[in-house]
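Renewal narrative, Specific Aim 1. Our central claim is that a sequence can be written position by position from structural information alone. The example that follows is taken directly from our test logs and has not been curated for this report. It begins with the C-alpha cells describing the chain, in the order in which they were read.
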C-alpha cells in the first residue's frame, strides 16, 4: 500500500510538469469564457474560513468578468460551497457532489468526480480547480489549478515529443492525470480543513475557559 501511494505521489508531482513540457499551462490560472470552475470544499463546518475562502475566490473571479456568468459552469464539491453559491449562481451549476469530508478522501472519490466531468455535456476549454493547500497547522493557501480538456491536450504542438501517443493513449492518460490532480486537491483540502478545525476548536475551548473563570 505504501508503495502504491508513493508511486501515486510521484505521478501527482509530475502532473503539472507534463502541462509545462507540452507548453499548455497559461501564465495565469484565471478563468476565461467557456471554462469549468471547480470548488473543493466539504460537507462539514466548524473549520473557520476553510470553506468560505474557496467560495470567495470563485466569486472574485466571476465579479471580475461578468461574461463568465453566461459562459462558465460550476462544479461544487461539498455541501458548504453549494449552500453559499446556490442563491446567486444557481443557473451556473453543472453538478454538485456531497458526502465529502466525512471520511478520508480516496482515489476512487477523485475518479468519480473526474468521470463526471469527462462525461458531462459541457464541453469546456479548461477547468480551474480551487482548493486549499496545507501550509502549517495554523495556515493554508487558497490555490487555483488548471485542468485541461482532452481537446486542449491533443491540440498541443509539443505533444509529439512523447513517443507512441495515439488518441486512445492520450485519452487514458488525460483521465488518470485529471483524477490524480483532483485526488491531490482533495487530500490537501482535507489536511487544511482538519488543521483549521483544530485551530477553531482550540480557540473556542480557550474562550470558554475564560468565560467560566469569570
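The sequence written for that structure reads:
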Amino acid at each position: 500500500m505504501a508503495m502504491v501511494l508513493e508511486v501515486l505521489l510521484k505521478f501527482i508531482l509530475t502532473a503539472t510538469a507534463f502541462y509545462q513540457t507540452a507548453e499548455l499551462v497559461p501564465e495565469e490560472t484565471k478563468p476565461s469564457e467557456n471554462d469549468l470552475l471547480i470548488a473543493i470544499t466539504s460537507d462539514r463546518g466548524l473549520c473557520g474560513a476553510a470553506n468560505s475562502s474557496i467560495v470567495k475566490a470563485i466569486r472574485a473571479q466571476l465579479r471580475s468578468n461578468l461574461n463568465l456568468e453566461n459562459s462558465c459552469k460550476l462544479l461544487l464539491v461539498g455541501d458548504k460551497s453549494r449552500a453559499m453559491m446556490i442563491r446567486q449562481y444557481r443557473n451556473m451549476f453543472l453538478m454538485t457532489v456531497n458526502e465529502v469530508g466525512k471520511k478520508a478522501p480516496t482515489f476512487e472519490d477523485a475518479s468519480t468526480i473526474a468521470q463526471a466531468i469527462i462525461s458531462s455535456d459541457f464541453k469546456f476549454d479548461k477547468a480551474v480547480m480551487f482548493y486549499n493547500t496545507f501550509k502549517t497547522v495554523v495556515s493554508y493557501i487558497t490555490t487555483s489549478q488548471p485542468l485541461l480538456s482532452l481537446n486542449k491536450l491533443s491540440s498541443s504542438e509539443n505533444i509529439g515529443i512523447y513517443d507512441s501517443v495515439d488518441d486512445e493513449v492520450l485519452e487514458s492518460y488525460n483521465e488518470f492525470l485529471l483524477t490524480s490532480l483532483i485526488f491531490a486537491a482533495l487530500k490537501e483540502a482535507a489536511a487544511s480543513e482538519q488543521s483549521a478545525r483544530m485551530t477553531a476548536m482550540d480557540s473556542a475551548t480557550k474562550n470558554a475557559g475564560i468565560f467560566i473563570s469569570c
